């Protein structure tokens, strides 16, 4: 539909973007929002359901206190005001994954409102206004089968799984964010990353984008300088940090090409495509009247006790931004080094590795080196790479004890990532321990001397530097397992140098 896209630099020279983000977070409560069904991810389809979350006639919802508490804590961490009195609302729409044919949500009376979150972008602080934080319930999941793409087009059947229906869902909506210019994509990404860290620090959700427990919709509009804000589009379910950035950027480029050609932007939902990095038109956006909101008659209003809210506020954990500053000082990192740790998503991992006994430098080396490389190669988040902080600390302990050298440690780490067990188990099972026992090494040393008589002569005549070649030969026959220092000492002793 679109022809050649304009260059990004030209777009930001001619247009000003306004972005906005709506983020849905599945809470990690033990039970669902209105019933006692369990909430864990996975499980056979339609096994975690009951009359309430299946919306059967005559069933009545009861609000989950833990979910309300978690939502208030999120609101407080985002500097929001907490409503002294508010209600749930019925949002009416028909969709097969919504068993009740309406969703219990909040409308004009959100539980938390008018807050902000400070995020750092390229060393500068950007304050993102938070419009509201409200509580609702998740829908089920529709699976389209029989087609090649998993989409409804080409599918032979559509199946519905209601295990997720009724899981408490918190929606966090930013105020419109103008004035970010060329940095709009980065600001969007930094906001979602910071929000994720804040929510994780509260321990109320595992905020895994790839499992859908944190989902993001991105609003984008463009206007010419001095003009009113443009019509915005909403790109749905963007499910990685990188995609958040790409979605804003590609939507800016697309809208600019439409506007430059004299066209108009349609207010609509758009779908982001991970493979191509662009968006395609979805449905035209419903307005609030389409949903026919009204106060939920089956639930009593919510009136959080102010003393309770004050207690929750006082008990909030140290927030990630402040914690990062403290950690940076403790670890003695430069701004740039700290930034690379943050960008790699390694702060908590390194912290936990240090807590398990490694030095900050060693922990950082493994997580930012070998493990980051692996995570990039396999396209997973660092936390899901397959090694735990305790295992990394154990690995480093084996290096410090002289049982593994750097090369062997990397081999052991591969085994850890492959799920072969703990570093000590892998070292033992695969016989990877450094051999420093002189008895075991003498034979290999003698063999190397016999095989390289000219090198041996040089060493005998005082050219000690030549010993390196023999050390190399021994390392080769021992598959890198010999302790190089011991080997060198043995060679020199054997040759009387
Ligand atoms: Zn249920």
From TrEMBL:
GO MF annotation list: ATP binding; glutaminyl-tRNA synthase (glutamine-hydrolyzing) activity
Upper classification of the organism: Bacteria, Bacillati, Actinomycetota, Actinomycetes, Micromonosporales
A Pfam family: GatB_Yqey
Catalytic activity: L-glutamyl-tRNA(Gln) + L-glutamine + ATP + H2O = L-glutaminyl-tRNA(Gln) + L-glutamate + ADP + phosphate + H(+); L-aspartyl-tRNA(Asn) + L-glutamine + ATP + H2O = L-asparaginyl-tRNA(Asn) + L-glutamate + ADP + phosphate + 2 H(+)
Homology family: Belongs to the GatB/GatE family. GatB subfamily.
GO BP, sorted A to Z: glutaminyl-tRNAGln biosynthesis via transamidation; translation
Alphabetical list of SUPFAM superfamilies matching this protein: GatB/YqeY motif, Glutamine synthetase/guanido kinase
Keyword ATP-binding carried by entry: yes
Name recorded for this polypeptide: Aspartyl/glutamyl-tRNA(Asn/Gln) amidotransferase subunit B
């Amino acid at each position: 539909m679109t022809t050649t896209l304009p260059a990004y630099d030209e777009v930001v020279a001619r247009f000003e973007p306004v972005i906005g983000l709506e983020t849905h977070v599945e809470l990690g409560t033990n039970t669902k929002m209105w019933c006692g069904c369990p909430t864990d991810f996975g499980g056979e389809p339609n096994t975690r359901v009951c009359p309430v979350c299946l919306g059967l006639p005559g069933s009545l919802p009861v609000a989950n206190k833990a979910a309300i508490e978690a939502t208030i804590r999120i609101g407080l961490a985002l500097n929001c005001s907490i409503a002294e009195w508010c209600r749930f609302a019925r949002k009416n729409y028909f969709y097969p994954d919504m068993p009740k044919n309406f969703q219990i949500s909040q409308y004009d009376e959100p539980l938390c409102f008018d807050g902000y979150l400070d995020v750092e972008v390229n060393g500068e602080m950007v304050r993102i206004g938070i419009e509201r934080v409200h509580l609702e319930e998740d829908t089920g999941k529709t699976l389209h089968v029989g087609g090649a793409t998993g989409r409804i087009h080409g599918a032979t059947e559509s199946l519905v799984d209601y295990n997720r229906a009724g899981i408490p869902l918190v929606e966090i909506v930013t105020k419109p964010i103008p004035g970010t210019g060329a940095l709009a994509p980065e600001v969007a990404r930094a906001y979602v990353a910071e929000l994720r860290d804040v929510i994780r620090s509260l321990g109320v959700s595992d905020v895994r984008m790839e499992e859908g427990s944190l989902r993001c919709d991105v609003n984008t509009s463009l206007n010419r300088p001095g003009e009113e804000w443009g019509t915005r589009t909403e790109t749905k379910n963007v499910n990685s940090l990188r995609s958040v950035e790409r979605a804003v950027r590609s939507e800016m480029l697309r809208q600019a090409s439409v506007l430059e050609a004299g066209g108009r932007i349609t207010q609509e939902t758009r779908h982001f495509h991970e493979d191509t990095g662009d968006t395609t038109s979805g449905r035209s956006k419903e307005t609030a009247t389409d949903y026919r909101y009204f106060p939920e008659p089956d639930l009593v209003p919510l009136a959080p006790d102010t003393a309770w809210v004050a207690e929750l506020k006082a008990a909030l954990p140290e927030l990630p931004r402040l914690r990062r500053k403290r950690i940076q000082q403790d670890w003695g990192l430069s701004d740039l080094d700290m930034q690379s740790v943050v960008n790699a998503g390694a702060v908590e991992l390194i912290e936990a590795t240090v807590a398990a006994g490694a030095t900050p430098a060693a922990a950082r080396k493994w997580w930012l080196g070998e493990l980051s490389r692996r995570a990039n190669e396999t396209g997973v988040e660092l936390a899901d790479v397959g090694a735990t902080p305790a295992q990394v600390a154990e690995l480093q302990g084996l290096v410090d004890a002289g049982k593994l050298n750097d090369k062997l440690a990397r081999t052991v780490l591969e085994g850890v990532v492959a799920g072969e067990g703990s570093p000590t188990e892998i070292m033992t099972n695969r016989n990877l321990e450094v051999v420093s026992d002189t008895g075991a090494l003498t034979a290999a040393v003698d063999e190397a001397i016999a095989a390289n008589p000219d090198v041996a002569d040089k060493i005998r005549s005082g050219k000690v530097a030549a010993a390196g070649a023999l050390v190399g030969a021994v390392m080769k026959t021992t598959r890198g397992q010999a302790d190089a220092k011991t080997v060198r000492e043995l060679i020199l002793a054997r040759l009387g140098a």
